[in-house]
Each structure stands twice: as C-alpha cells, then as structure tokens.
Design a protein that fits this description.
Blueprint lengths: L2 H35 L12 E5 L7 H9 L11 H9 L4 E9 L3 E8 L2 E5 L3 E4 L4 E2 L12 E3 L5 H15 L6 E6 L5 E5 L4 E5 L3 H10 L1 H5 L8 E3 L7 E3 L10 E2 L1
Parallel strand pairs: 1-3, 4-7, 7-8, 10-11
Antiparallel strand pairs: 2-3, 4-5, 5-6, 8-9, 9-10, 11-12, 12-13
C-alpha cells in the first residue's frame, strides 16, 4: 500500500463521518417535529395563563381589551398568534399602536397607545397629536376641540395653517375654534370670542398681523368683540360690531 492509497482512505473515512453527523442531525430534527406534532407544545402542556394589559387608558379600558383578546389566546405559549393579537388590539377604536410580546413561561403582555385628538377634521374624523387622521363613531360629539375643514387632500396644509395662525393669536389670549379652506382656496376662521374672520386666499399671515396690531385700540372701548372682520382688503380691513340689525353697518379701518 502506498501513501496515496492511505490518504484516499482517510478522506473517505472523514466523508463518512460527516455524513453520519448530518444524518443524525436530520433525524433529530425529524424527531423534534414529531414531538411537536404529538402535542408536546399544545395548549394543555404549555397554556397561556396570564394576559397583561398595559397603557395610559383614557378612551379604552383594560377590561375592554381583555374581553376582546381573551378569545384569541387559546393556544400554547409556542403557537399563540402574536400577529393576530396585535391586529385585534389595533382594530379597537382609539388604539393607535399595539405591541404584543410573550414572556416565559405562560404570559402574554399587551401594551397599547391611544390616539390623542387635537382637532376635528370635516365630519366624522379627528386629527391626532401626531398629525394622523383617524375616525371613531363618536367623533363629532367630542367637545372642546377646534374644527378644521377643507378638501381631503389638503389636510396637512390646513393643519399647518391652523397651528401657525393660532400661535399669532396666543399673545392676545385668543384661539381659533374653527378654520376653513374652501374649494376656491379662501381661508376663514372663527375665534373663541365669537369673532368671524375672513382672510381670503393670499397673504393670510400678513393680513392677520395687520388686525392684531390694531386689536387693542380697536376693542378697548367696546363692550363686546367684533362680530365679523374682513381682512380681504389691500391696505386695511372692515369690522362689523354686534348691534341691532337695522343699524348694523361695517366700519372700514
């Protein structure tokens, strides 16, 4: 026997050993699958015993979530459908984000974040503090939120305009309760003191600043704020004060 034959036989033995190891691992994998298939990880052996619900609840309750999700937790710790649980939680009105995790050996932990509404949008919809648009059945009945109106495709523009104009009004202690962008691109709004303001289509910030610069001398000797202000003039604005209908005429400033 020469050296080459010896090397060849060593290689064959090494290959046979590798093949044996791979075969053993394959059989172990098949055994594990069979272990699962005969029920080793069924709900009877590794049941979910605890469903933890976490969140800063305002509009949604832990009891509501538990009632909806409990029916989804019917399998074992190994086979529970986390994605299904997350989708079921996310489908609940007012839920913005839902996270579902398993905790060994028998717990499902669900954490939710609610939408925080900052404004109405047209009818039946709300704007969250993140700028996200969402809908809940009781949307139009919620009090204390400003109303934003405009074409559906221009929500971002209306939202940004509302925030910007509201900041200008803040030093005077005024707020916007309703702002509208109509189909012609013209802006109008209602303040929390009841004053209606027509801004027009262009230079809305400059026009409002013109009114605010004159606001204190304009109102200091008046018992009530203006009823209507028309800012659609090049160098001034018109004011209508609350008074009997027969004598109601606007003042040009």
């Amino acid at each position: 026997m020469n050296g080459r034959d010896t090397i060849r036989r060593d290689r064959q033995r090494g290959f046979s050993s590798q093949l044996l190891v791979m075969s053993t691992l394959f059989l172990l994998a098949l055994g594990a699958l069979g272990w699962v298939s005969v029920g080793i990880v069924t709900s009877e052996r590794w049941p979910i015993r605890w469903l933890e619900i976490n969140g800063a609840f305002q509009r949604v309750s832990a009891e509501q979530l538990r009632a909806i999700l409990s029916s989804e937790v019917g399998s074992s710790f190994f086979t529970v459908d986390l994605k299904g649980l997350q989708e079921a939680a996310s489908d609940i009105s007012w839920v913005s984000v839902a996270q579902v995790q398993k905790q060994w050996p028998d717990t499902i932990r669900v954490s939710v974040q609610e939408f925080v509404p900052v404004a109405h949008w047209n009818r039946g919809q709300l704007v969250a503090d993140s700028g996200t648009l969402f809908a809940v059945p009781e949307a139009d009945e919620i009090q204390g939120l400003p109303w934003l109106e405009g074409p559906e495709a221009r929500l971002t523009e209306v939202l940004q305009t509302w925030v910007g104009l509201d900041e200008l009004l803040m030093p005077l202690g005024l707020e916007i309760t309703r702002i509208k962008l109509d189909g012609r691109g013209a802006w109008s709004m209602v303040l929390d003191n009841g004053t209606r303001v027509a801004l027009g289509r262009d230079s809305t910030v400059e026009r409002l600043e013109r009114l605010l610069a004159s606001w204190e001398p304009l109102t200091q000797e008046r018992e009530a704020p203006p009823q209507d202000v028309d800012l659609r003039y090049t160098n001034g604005f018109a004011v209508l004060w609350p008074q009997p209908v027969d004598s109601a005429t606007p003042d040009k400033m």
